[in-house]
Design a protein that fits this description.
mainly beta; globular; 4 helices; 6-stranded antiparallel sheet
Length: about 450
Amino acid sequence: MSSSSPLCEARQLTLPKLLHTSTPHLSSLMYDSKSSSLAFRHFDSSFSLYPCVNPLRLSSFPSPQTLIPSPTSSATFLHLQTSPESATTLFLTCSPILRPSSSTLFRFYVLRDDRFGKIKVLSNHRDLVWDQSKGGMVFNTNHGVSMKLSGGINVFSLYSVSNSKIWVFAVRLICDHVGPEALKLMKCAVIDCCFPIFEIRVLFGFLILGEENGVRVFPLRPLVKGKQRKEKKSGGRRSNLQCGSSNGGKTLVTDEELNLLSVKSEKREKHNDSVKLRVMKLRQDSKDAGGVFVAFKDKDFNGSVSVNMPGKSVKAISVEALSVNKFVILDSIGNLHVLCLSSSLHGLDACCVMKQSIQTMKVLKIAVFHDVSAVTQTIWISDGCYTVHLMAVSGVDASVDDSEVADTDEKLVTTSVTQAILTSEKIHDMVPMNANAVLILGEGMPILTPFTCYQSKERA
């Protein structure tokens, strides 16, 4: 074998027997690269949390420090970016409350000292009430048959299938030197859905909805900022609350998502409470918040409704970020698409490009390891059977302006398959650990298999 021949290493990790569930079998995996934390979802809908863990260095998984009981309908990792150098990792779950009324329970877990623990949540909204006995925030809305959470930076979304609504929330960390820290939960926007949604993600300042024959993209800023701002006179001067927080009149919005500064004093918290934003309400096909529908095949990207394709309905079922303005999308028939957004997305004036990628197999699952410092991004794709391909995607870091988007069909991205992995079990789920390693959940047994791929010269 030549010194440049690719190599793969794999080993199996067994899971501990848990007392709270009858089976250690897992239904899905979640991995947070910022904190190196893993979340295992069990078939009874409970969760096991493993903070600051590296499966590539383990021989078996220990018993989890944090267990989240069933029923849990959805969960997500969420990050609070209080400054460019500081971020706090949260794990958020939602559950149905059946008695005394049908409502929804949010539980927030904060990562502190390599351990996830519950944290108290405050809110000024009447339909959000903290329940100490349940250890979470009760959201007075019918849970229904299904809820879907998606977390980003300081912002998360909740989609209810039964209510046909999407809620956008912002979260702020309250740092009080007298008492324990807490979270401030703010409801920012409510979207009434008029088309079926098959995926919802909060990614790099965008809310992306997977629909039939394409995706719908909303910039987060107008959703969180609200349509109107309420002003308060203070000492003869007017104080504007912009994008959920105020800081000397400056807008606290990062290039990625909303940046809400932590509140470090009771006086400042009361000031922020007295200046409130109105909850923005709109329809899924509304143009008010700058939403744009991007079709898989139709070149008219500025439509406000999903494109009807007679006799064929292709659904966007998975969305992952390649960079701040490029995303890879998996459709329901196994094709991959790359969505490129203009750097100046302003509603229907936006220029967008959707390009179908070329791959040799029909894809059932995708997992993307995003590294902002890398020129080439890594995509792991699987046919859902026994095969995983490692794809290298180049050209995703280049900035794109409105003039370039229109004719960038050929220059958008370059993809190539660099590795192929065959597994002994059918692949149920997978998450990337880094650019060259993936954690695979087998379907037959509760066994996790980390694969590491590299060039043989790198091993030496």
